[in-house]
């Protein structure tokens, strides 16, 4: 991959006169050659220095132009220093196409940018999108666009010059063997008795990385690695890729990986095709949907979600899905399905009437079945031919419509009375009035209204007695109605939203006005396991917190207070009663009063089983009970102001801490690391610690793997100890914000010492500001500095859909 990356970077860096237009380069090759992997590697390489803004957007077969433009704009806005941008982007679904195009052009004008459009199937898609990129004789930008496609014709039509096409080739025999042996044996060598069969299997794979890795990982799981067993696998592969080295051969190979799954995982894996092509599937949403669908069988002493998590881990371990974001503990947070594997499981789903589809024309079929059990409407598929009739879909138990801009003409919620699962995430057409019929679906167990224009829930939501998950994140819902307290089966009450500063999502931002107030009667919801994010800035919502102590199953809790300290009292009382159940706690005080979080120090029964703790607010020192958090894995601190070295030494001795995030005024000591400190730490974020005089690893954090840095100025004592002698396991350093070149170059030089090729990336924030199109001076929002908290949040919004914070050094945690 290194040589291919160098070749593409070299093409992009060539100086060519392109009057008023961005440079467009195409990467072409059939499925399984690794086009997306190559584009991602180029996208992240520091060799393309000076990139001021960038975006990575999957296009796929069924695309919605508006959704693509929204995705581009949200990612570009990440690097614009304008406090009003988040407020404006929350109204993005109200803008017309001209506004979207105008705003994208403004973000790109005069900047060096990089845009990746992944998996383009038709040149028409490029023609529809390219109008958003600055062009014309007066344009002085230095834009580069990478397009990946299977079609040579599309590649030719899109690229700027005839030789701006990088054609991917199958791996040569030597590289194929090396990849196969590393996949199966974790080594470059193969046992002599398996060498011949390895060559025979590789002959079937025809140099396709996806085929090699898929079969290799399947064989790696086999306990008995014998020549006879491998011959059986080889025979099952057939000679498809020898005679037809394109899609059919790849499908046959990937079908083997599916067939190798145990019976109880096949339905769970088939379910992944309910999500559109290139959709980043979040772990938390997936396992809750599995549970709601009845695909998980409960076991004694384990919840359905816990069993679902075990099933997902097993699927991940088989490497038949593409991992997305990985948490600091190594747990997968999101995943994707390769488009060829998606075709395989869609075909099986349609044949077995497991899931039916609307969207891409090749999936618009029920294969002769007269009843639709699960229906997935993919982007661009809302006004398609009437393959289904209303009679077909009245028996539907599960309906998935993601990121659509037009309401399907066939869908009438009032008729779908058997629905158990309804996922409408990102549906721009959804309005409050649609909830009237949705609240009549009495069998609903899972309801997601995430990232829609919903602003108010009706009291009738309390009629959804079977509801287990209610997701209204990234909406304008700021208060729950009294009816919410009637939902005695509800496990997950989700509100709030995040955006991100870095592509790895190591630094994220929570907006204070995404929290919601709750009514009295919360104690009746005895099944609640997770509440996020509750705003207790009114007396009514604060008093409701006094009932939390009745929720003995509550494990995750996020609370925000923007008013006076007295509003914390009911919450503090409840914390004493939740000491045995809480595993995740976020406490945010947004006032400017002194020591508003001091109540934490006086808890009689502190939550000593915490695995994640995230604090925002003034503290003289950490509560004494923090030293007893033996299971604490993730910690974030922001605006604690007075937290100095003595408190930091307490943190340094925590035995399980793997992620530490220190933000603005989160630490006031001189240096961070001493000998023996943080023995298990794997991830460290240092952001805008103005008073930090030195970042030095003096034998501390020996297991550190990822380091994320933003310095407002060069520390007086410098950055020391980043090298293979002190940090032997370090594999990634990422810079964001305004990157100080001297520190960046120092780390890049140290990276050369690492035998495992230490990855160094940067997220530069441009110094110029572009005002949002169509905005008026009358539009305003009384934002306050609020954080994004946590390391292992499984509900992070996908990077291709969200905007990182517009001001990294001010709003993070």
From TrEMBL:
Residues 275-345 form the Disease resistance protein winged helix domain. Residues 395-753 form the Disease resistance R13L4/SHOC-2-like LRR domain. It comes from the Eukaryota. Residues 759-813 are annotated as: Disordered. Residues 767-783, 803-813 have a biased composition (Polar residues). Residues 5-188 form the NB-ARC domain. Keywords: Plant defense, Repeat. It holds the Pfam family LRR_14. InterPro entries: Apaf_helical (IPR042197), Disease_R_plants (IPR044974), LRR_dom_sf (IPR032675), LRR_R13L4/SHOC2-like (IPR055414), NB-ARC (IPR002182), P-loop_NTPase (IPR027417), WH-like_DNA-bd_sf (IPR036388), WHD_DRP (IPR058922). GO terms for molecular function: ADP binding. GO terms for biological process: defense response to bacterium; innate immune response-activating signaling pathway; plant-type hypersensitive response. PANTHER family: DISEASE RESISTANCE PROTEIN RP, DISEASE RESISTANCE PROTEIN RPM1. This is NB-ARC domain-containing protein. It comes from Triticum turgidum subsp. durum.
